[in-house]
Design goal:
Layout lengths: L1 H15 L1 E2 L5 E2 L9 H55 L13 E8 L19 H11 L13 E5 L10 H13 L3 E4 L3 H12 L6 E6 L1 H10 L19 E9 L4 H4 L3 H8 L16 E9 L4 H7 L18
Parallel strand pairs: 3-6, 4-5, 4-6
Antiparallel strand pairs: 1-2, 3-7, 7-8
């Protein structure tokens, strides 16, 4: 009898609705009917999602395209400067001067002094070093000489101050303290004629065991280095940062440098193993009587506070005296 009652109650519940524990009937929740506004909202959401995916895909494809373009331009630039450097080395004049084998000479190439801060222009609109630039120039002069970092230079070159509409003395001012220290005139040169002048000097053998210092405009440095025979394959970079002032490039020239066999006694036997293989292109051969150049990038490590402190500033006795006059 009880089972029949339960069945009847279940049937009633199924027919009439759902009841709570207190016996109250709960209304059935029927699916909400979608209105035109709901359908339009869903359509817009799907459209926004599709547009977002499309924009992300475009950004990704565009980023890959820009990256590939950048890599292509960088490769083309490197190839250009490599070809320019190769052409420069191959066309060094051969004047049959008696140049010692393995004659070495080094050219130091760096940017002009810092140009940040006030008072970098005079009343005529001409460009000059900033205060830190003058300090850097004075610091750089301390890097040359006996017991210093580098030997005294034999030649100083700076970019000619004449520009399109004004005079820019920064390259000249950068070398001025060093010029006073070694009592050596600064030769002013145009871009890119300096490369031809230096390579002509190189061909005479007069630069053996000497150092040449060049202060130049940063946007011309890569091209100048390439015209001097130092491209990306020789160790010279194919770009120079806009905000960089401390970097220095060393171009070491060696006349008729040692061959691999002179460094490696077993080179000849290994060289015979290579014979007969395709596309070795004479690997290991080294023509006689030629100049080779090796580029190295280093830093001057200029520290304004350290330099000022070493010159008497921050010691309670006034300002540092880094503007020294040349000895008579």
């Amino acid at each position: 009898m009880s089972s029949e009652n339960n069945n009847n109650n279940n049937n009633n519940n199924n027919n009439n609705g759902v009841y709570t524990s207190e016996g109250e009937e709960k209304p059935l929740l029927l699916p909400r009917q979608l209105t035109l506004e709901d359908l339009e909202r869903e359509r817009r959401q799907r459209l926004c999602l599709a547009l977002s995916i499309f924009c992300c895909a475009c950004i990704l494809v565009g980023g890959i395209g820009v990256w590939k373009l950048h890599m292509t331009l960088a490769r083309d630039t490197a190839n250009y400067y490599t070809a320019l450097a190769t052409h420069a080395l191959e066309n060094i004049p051969n004047n049959n001067y008696p140049i010692p084998t393995q004659c070495e000479t080094t050219l130091l190439l760096f940017r002009h002094c810092d140009k940040d801060g006030p008072h970098i222009q005079d009343e005529h609109g001409n460009e000059h070093c900033g205060y830190l630039g003058y300090e850097r120039a004075a610091y750089m002069a301390t890097l040359f000489g006996p017991q210093a970092r580098w030997p005294l230079p034999s030649h100083l070159f700076a970019l000619l101050p004449e520009r399109n509409s004004n005079l820019n003395y920064r390259e000249y001012e950068t070398l001025l303290p060093l010029s006073r220290k070694v009592n050596l005139d600064i030769d002013l040169a145009r871009h890119p004629q300096l490369a031809n002048e230096f390579l002509d000097m190189l061909a005479t053998g007069d630069l053996c065991d000497k150092v040449t210092v060049v202060s130049w405009k940063h946007s011309f440095m890569v091209e100048l280095a390439a015209r001097l025979g130092c491209g990306p394959n020789n160790g010279c970079p194919s770009s120079y940062s806009e905000g960089e002032f401390d970097q220095l490039w060393q171009l070491k020239y060696v006349y008729n440098p040692p061959t691999s066999s002179q460094f490696d006694p077993d080179y000849s036997s290994r060289r015979r193993i290579l014979k007969g293989k395709k596309n070795h292109r004479g690997r290991g051969k080294h023509p006689n009587h030629e100049w080779a150049v090796y580029g190295t990038v280093s830093q001057m490590n200029f520290d304004p506070l350290s330099f000022s402190y070493q010159n008497g500033d921050y010691q309670g006795n006034g300002s540092g005296n880094w503007e020294e006059e040349p000895e008579p």
